[in-house]
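Please predict the structure of the following assembly.
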Amino acid sequence: MSGLSPIQGVEAAARNAQDAARSLRGATSGAKNALLVAIADALEDQRGAILEANARDVEDGRASGMKEGLIDRLLLTEERISSIAAATRQVASLPDPVGEVVRGQSLPNGLLLRQVRVPMGVIGMIYEARPNVTVDAAALALKAGSAVLLRGGRAALHSNAALVDVMRTAVTANNLPADLVATIDEYGREGGVALMRARGLVDLVIPRGGAGLIQTVVRESLVPVIETGVGNCHVYVDRAADLDKALAIAVNSKTHRPSVCNAAETLLVHRDVASQFVPRVVQALQGAGVTVHGCDKVQALASNVVPASEEDWETEYLALDIAVGVVDSIDGALSHIRRYSTGHTEAIVSQDVAAVREFTSSVDSAAVMVNASTRFTDGGELGLGAEIGISTQKLHARGPMGLAELTTTTWIVEGDGHVRI
Amino acid sequence: MSGLSPIQGVEAAARNAQDAARSLRGATSGAKNALLVAIADALEDQRGAILEANARDVEDGRASGMKEGLIDRLLLTEERISSIAAATRQVASLPDPVGEVVRGQSLPNGLLLRQVRVPMGVIGMIYEARPNVTVDAAALALKAGSAVLLRGGRAALHSNAALVDVMRTAVTANNLPADLVATIDEYGREGGVALMRARGLVDLVIPRGGAGLIQTVVRESLVPVIETGVGNCHVYVDRAADLDKALAIAVNSKTHRPSVCNAAETLLVHRDVASQFVPRVVQALQGAGVTVHGCDKVQALASNVVPASEEDWETEYLALDIAVGVVDSIDGALSHIRRYSTGHTEAIVSQDVAAVREFTSSVDSAAVMVNASTRFTDGGELGLGAEIGISTQKLHARGPMGLAELTTTTWIVEGDGHVRI
């Protein structure tokens, strides 16, 4: 404990992070990769201390009546630490975004122009009680040449402190300043607010967690924020769909991993194929344990369908529930999506090029799937490498945010005494 | 007057703009270019009405004691209207950013992946009493496929109303919805606040004006903002500079157009060349009418130098004033820049590759000039076409913001029944 107020403490941490970030700005990819490998090794070497700290958090969680689902997110095991270390090594193996020349040309007057990726500086991360995010976020930030300030969930306090401790020691052992990685958890909730207010000291805040956390950060932050991850994703089965593919895509989109943001929450079926497709898909979904909430037409076509209310169309269930509706046309599907989508991912299943063209040009979301599962909106699946989250906003980053999205750019203009006339 | 409260009125305008933007989303470049040419023609055809409205604003301005510099910014003439129309035609001639495939590949599993530029949706513009911004902003937004909500300075109320009226008529005549271009000036200051709060309805707000306006918008807005244009730009003359080039660059950076954000405000000179360079550059600057504010060493080396205070290093003069300091090393220059820069543009004059490499890799600004005037940080000069402002923030856009920066992207993923395994 430092004896500083939360605002003083966070501002001091941010200034230290800014200073530390400078030493990483010019670091080679080799040096950054060596650091990440050293962090991975240290996490495995010191798993004893990490597991001990984690056991305290889990015990506290159980004592305060935390649900088993949340306990499971919080829990670390030897295997989980190894997989966190493996993910860190994987970040080391990704191409370095820093130094990439994004655009460049020589101008008519002889000026040589290039736009180059450079580190962001200091990245703040506000997240819930998932200790793996502590290391993931630090690894991605470091690889992108930035320092990271971590504000984790209170329930993971001891785990995060242990993980940060291990990482800082590894940073120092690699002759870099420890303040490249720091937690502000000791300053509690007020510290989180101070982080969001530290405009000019912190370059970017990324909230990662439930809709409530994200909305709070978006509302409160003066530091630029990237909104992540709320996904009320739709699958639209067109009149010209291959219904076998539609069935596989609908079931996969819903059930492959229901708790994540790219899972489908609503299925819309064109009326021309409804009588053929709805009974099949409802049965398949119910067979996979899904509760189907349907409109009147769906209720008429299949059994055991719960009536869907307005709320169902709005809800990101993140569970084995789905809302199913019949629409009169592709326009009906598009206007439903416009009304209820959170702008994450929408899919169309159709063999008709005109329908596909209309859907892809009209839907205003981060990703549009054509004859593919919504579950493909994922940095790893799309070949972007590790991701720090999936942005559902339109500025800076949209969709899976990889290393490139954690950088900014500088224009470098080389002349030979050039002045404006 | 609509009888709505400012919040109701602005929200209604934003919804109308959203609806209107949809019809522009799929518009061809040809259709958008024809619209812009029609707007340009209409501005010239109806210059009588525009000049009449502008005369009212100018008269009101004079009556309320507005300074002549501001009156000049507000004033429209036949010639100025022609140059606004010409700028609109120039936007029509630029390549369309919408539809550009930014990245793309086919993935190992056969998914075809592309990241495509798409329109932002609704862009809000908050600016001061410069009627040309009304048309510039609308032209850029329309070309980028978005609707625009304009909140101009109160002093240009009648001018802006007339310009918007002409543009809306031209939009309608081109079979597009008038609400692609709208002013919310009738809702006054509260309307501006409502615009900043309209998150979810408005996709982006760009403030354009003085530091006070920009800071207010950054602080108050819930809609994502791009910060533009505050430039405390530095020129550093290295020990290895070609001093003739340095002289030309320093004078050009300061005096070519002192009132704009890419003008230099501070000159830093390496001590090894100070006794040779400072007297020359001070004399040249003073000969061009510049007041030189200098550190002790500069005062000792040249005459008629005003002592520079802490405030001078911080000030964006936007006038024929410059702060001049002698630094002990390139590190001294870098740490001065770190402390006082607003992150817009810094220049180095040097023939030494090591110094250039250090400077370009250490300076954390939107643009770095090497042996060139700071005045080149400009969309037109850098070959990006027209610009809507110069971003000094790190997210989304950094440096001159052209058409591409007014768009967002969507990932389009085409499969053939692909599901995740």
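Residues 6-25 of chain A form the longest helix (20 residues). The longest strand of chain A covers residues 407-418.
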